[in-house]
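Dear colleague,

Thank you for sharing your sequence with our group. We've completed the structure prediction you requested, and as agreed, I am returning the results in plain text so they can be pasted directly into your records. Please verify that the sequence below matches your submission; if there's any discrepancy, let me know and we will rerun it promptly.
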Amino acid sequence: MNKPTPDIRPANPNFSSGPCAKRPGFTLDALSGAFLGRSHRAAEPKARLKDVIDLSKQILGMPADWRLGIVPGSDTGAVEMALWSLLGARPVDIVTFESFGEGWATDIVKHLKLKDATTHTAPYGALPDLTKINPAHDVVFPWNGTTSGVRLTNADWIADDRAGLTICDATSAAFAMELPWHKLDVVTWSWQKVLGGEAAHGMLALSPRAVERLETYTPPWPLPKLFRLTSKGKIAEGVFKGETINTPSMLCVEDAFDGLRWADSIGGLPALIARSEANLKAVADWVATSDWADFLAADPATRSCTSICLKIGAPWFIALSPEDQAKAAKQLVALIEKQGVAYDIGAYRDAPPGIRIWGGATVETSDIQALLPWLDWAHAAVATTFQ
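Please find the predicted structure tokens below.
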């Protein structure tokens, strides 16, 4: 017998993992100050770009001697800019436990063709053995697995006296998790994640150690103009003062600035973290009483508070073939979407079949709580079909 239709609904049904839900109370009026039709190199637009850089650094608690720039291509552009510009000087360790880490491994091994590269891999839901990372090597890793729902719990495995650089893809961690800046050398993210900005723009943060590498090492491969962070052997300081390499959307810039001002107004990073953690707790409390749903992350300590990934553990589902499991999971998600209750909550295409709920700071916990009974409703309906 099917469960009755729940009598509550999320006020905002947007739970996509990117682009993510806009901040609470957002309207297009928030963008009325955008410098549309203006050159991004003019004084006022350039100052707005610098506003985004400065407020991002402030909220994140980034050290004063770090540089932060706005770069093209979202987080992907920021990571690849770092890989192409910095790697090759030392052997490199690559940490992969979800699809984006695997993508960086492909770039490093197959495209940059670095011979001295070691990949440390774990399946979806787990972390690799990080004690095997060599401090004499560069290391490339995600802080949070956007497609696996697994996050690092600390950076104790990174040596304080390391010789190599640490390159951290933090796109679904920045503004929702503490980042140990003294353990990191390159950090990247995009506007479209925790603060709900629009896509296509990335952020690239560089420590003094990363800048030193840029100024003392020239990679053996050609660098496209979009990747060039130095000029005549010195860091291109303008990039970190609002002089972007290419033309940004000033509408997206204003949107990013609006999200940052909202974050600052509610209490900055501690408040953003608390909102994301509350969303995770709401799901965890529900999972604890569920007879069919569980976290993809095996270790509770590693469960992400942003990309909350769930698997279906009901006996009827486990008994299905992999093909039918995929069909059943997609049907469950489709039922929810058809009701207009939640959009874009299917597991990532390369991940095990299941559900992925974005729990970043722009998502209200009350909306998460209103969604959960609908998951039970949809599960019961799909179980009837496949049993």
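Summary note from our side: The domain at 268-386 is CATH 3.90.1150.10 (Aspartate Aminotransferase, domain 1).

Kind regards,
the structure core
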